[in-house]
């Protein structure tokens, strides 16, 4: 009996110290809603169909990175079109046309005012630690590159969107950028961030609507602050990854910045049919299913909210 209990304890301990990969999206979710963070990276579910806007941005960024790496216009265009996920219908074709027009306008501008990259896009992987204290969590993500400007190094952040978006100051609320910068600064002295705008538009108009670059300095204290903000989140995540009760829902985050949370159907309506498991979770499928069962059984989202959500 005692031996059985010891064995159970050992299994639980091993489970909780398993090396656990996270990325910056994990932390962007987790800081606004614990539930969203674990659904993204612990049970690791994703909607079966991807939002068109995400596909569009993703394809465009992939082609822009290729352009910066190889400087080959035709290859970048081919990459954008040939790897576009189906099905191909009229609506999809119009998205491809717009993305291609945006890419061409961007490459025209960059050919005249090149972004001076000293490092291309690359991935990094670092343990999440603080003052000699460790968690089994790793941060695995990527940076768009490092550019040189006035003899100083800047973290490159490609921004796809409307031209008029105002980013006149490097803000502490730019959590994702600050985290990337702080991890990069452990290897390289960087002076700030360059927001490289890639403007979405309908036709290739190199004179208008091609975006611009903003070089924004930041201080070492801002970088240290972003790493410090990650530590308490990491400790909570480390507990929540084996304890579904701690994966608290935050109703206020369900429709933030005009976007509906991708886990809304599961979390509020209690349906899993629109989701699938994705790779990347160190838990087995059985453990992930158990975790979801607990979330569903506990009905962490109150019943009246579910009724409201499914009301026609
Ligand atoms: S639907 Fe709302 S409560 Fe549920 S995971 Fe998303 S943000 Fe959190």
Task: Describe the structure in your own words.
The protein has 312 residues and is α+β, with helices and mostly antiparallel strands. The chain has two domains: 86 residues, no CATH class; 197 residues, no CATH class. Helix content is 46%, strand content 20%. The chain contains eleven helices and twelve strands. A five-stranded mixed β-sheet has the order 3-6-7-8-9. α2 runs antiparallel to α3. The C terminus is likely disordered. The site of iron/sulfur cluster has 14 residues, from α3 and α9. Iron/sulfur cluster binds next to α3 and α9.
Defining key terms:
2 domains; three-stranded mixed β-sheet; binds iron/sulfur cluster; five-stranded mixed β-sheet; 312 residues; disordered C terminus; globular; alpha+beta
What are the secondary-structure elements, in order, as H or E? HEHHEHHHEEEEEHEEHEEHEHH
Question: Residue ranges: pLDDT <50 for 5 or more in a row?
Answer: 6-15, 300-312
Q: Could you report the average pLDDT, rounded to the nearest whole number?
A: 81
- The total domain count is 2
- β-sheet strand percentage: 15-25%
Largest sheet: 5 strands, mixed
Which percent range fits the helix content? 40-55%
Bound ions, cofactors and other small molecules, one mention each: iron/sulfur cluster
Instruction: Tell me the radius of gyration.
Output: 22 Å
Class based on secondary structure composition and strand pairing: alpha+beta
What is the β-strand count? 12
Order of strands, main sheet, comes to 3-6-7-8-9
How many angstroms does the end-to-end distance come to? 54 Å
Count of helix runs: 11
Net shape: globular
